[in-house]
Amino acid sequence: MRILLIANTLPPHDLSGVGEQVVQLAAGLEARGHEVRILGRGPGGAGGPKVLFPLAVVPALRRTLRTFTADVVQVHESDGGLAALWLRWCGPRGARRPKLVALLQVSYVEERRAVRELRAGGRVLGRPGAVEKRFRRFKVPLQVLLGRLSARLADRVLAPSAATAAELERDYGARDVAVLPNVTGGLPAAAERCPGPGDERDFLLFVGRLRIRKGVEVLLEALAAGGEDRLWIAGDGEHRARLEARADELGLRASGRVRFLGRASRGEVRDLLSRARALVVPSTYEGMPLVVLEAMEAGVPVVASRVSGIPEVVIDGETGWLVPCEDPSALAAALADLAADPASGARRGAAGRQRVELLYRPAVAAATWERLVEEKGES
């Protein structure tokens, strides 16, 4: 089968879970004998900046299909909405018409709802900043429109979790959304020593873009409630200044218990995971975070909010700890449990590694993708 994957963000230039999943899936499909081409930004692809990709990818897609007769074209995220529209209205016809698949990691309707105050016990823990408010007001409506285009035009819609699939059916009007979980292991990266923590070990680790829905304020409150845990925060984003200010208010930076490491490469994240006690994911909304799979692959237990697709990956009591979101007390209790019983953390980390090997490898995703796409074609 000849498969064209379209994505706005691709490694190594973009640190994006979406882009990494495109490459992971491509690796699995190629290993099964398919011919796979990836259409992104840059030479041979869409020109111009990232923000114009939804428009710029259309002429790039037209050029690509002149020389590459695809059996399947798969768009990723809302950025592929106009490409899907062109393919349906102006693309190849008859026997040359490719099947159109849309793989959507999140519902932007839910993304919009997640740009809000964080609250616990009647207290406001954090507020979105101006950048996120502009995102909610101006960018999200366009992303919702493009996402709905992709979902309604596609022959097959895929989501990384059953929770996201239900959101796409409710918010985008998608029908019969199938689940194709995210995977890890198809994009090897050697560990690169992250300069921030030096040779230190046994710290808690947060990895991700710093935005309000990641719930980092909840984690800071949990740390301030007690214990001696140290937290290293790997990532950057529009919410970083507010988080640094809150950590200072709580005295967590002055005491050396919290460090902001900034943006980290895949190799640096691998290094951090090799030395961390646990990965903490206090989000209020997610699709299916790739970093959770990377932690499990490294044998690191995960302490996470019970939201979105996370409970489909992290099994409470077996591969990690799940807690209610926006609940610093529950999160603090889980971290205290982890600190008091390191052997339990080691067991859960080992169980997580076994779960990744069984369910979240590119070969597994590729086989599932084949079945789902062919099944839809026969229905």
Major sheet description: 6 strands, parallel
The first-to-last residue Cα distance is 19 Å
Strand arrangement in the largest pleated sheet: 2-1-3-4-7-8
What multimeric state do the chains show?
single chain
Provide the gyration radius in Å.
21 Å
* Overall pLDDT: 94
Helix count, DSSP H or I runs of 4 or more residues: 14
CATH topology of the largest domain: Rossmann fold
Total strands: 14
Question: Would you identify the CATH H-level superfamily of the largest domain?
Answer: Glycogen Phosphorylase B
Please write the CATH class name of the largest domain. Alpha Beta
Number of domains: 2
* Annotated CATH architecture of the largest domain: 3-Layer(aba) Sandwich
Gross morphology: globular
Describe this structure in words.
This protein is 45% helix and 16% strand. The chain has 14 helices and 14 strands. Helix 1 crosses helix 14, helix 4 (108-114) runs antiparallel to helix 5 (130-153) and helix 7 packs across helix 12. The model has no long low-confidence stretch (mean pLDDT 94).
Q: What features would you highlight for this structure?
A:
379 residues, 2 domains, 6-stranded parallel beta sheet, globular, 14 strands, alpha/beta, Rossmann fold
Short description:
By secondary structure, this protein is of the alpha/beta class. The protein contains 14 helices and 14 strands. It has a six-stranded parallel beta sheet, sandwiched between helices. A six-stranded parallel beta sheet has the order 11-10-9-12-13-14, sandwiched between helices.
